[in-house]
Amino acid sequence: MHALNDILMKLGNEETDVPLFLRTEETLSQPWDLSASDAINELRNQLFKHAAELTASIDQQFLGTRQNTE
For 7, 21, 66, 68, which has the most beta carbons within 10 A of its beta carbon? Predict the structure, then answer.
């Protein structure tokens, strides 16, 4: 979760009083700026990756969902 917060802060979403999930959803729902720097686009890629990993972990740990490893 710390990585998600760091990435969100770097992308300008500093609303720490808003739940992390909602901040992530809000940031990822914004249109991609194809003229943005490679660093910004990489941060968005990392945000998507970390959010997906966190969701999978929550599913596995708390909902009993198993990941397909094939």
Answer: 7
pLDDT tens sequence across 24-70: 999 999 998 889 999 999 999 999 999 999 999 989 998 886 655 55
Helix-, strand-, coil-residue percentages of the chain, each rounded to 5: 65, 0, 35
Which residues contact residue 15 at a Cβ distance below 8 angstroms, ignoring those fewer than 6 apart?
23
Tokens 């917060």 found at: 5
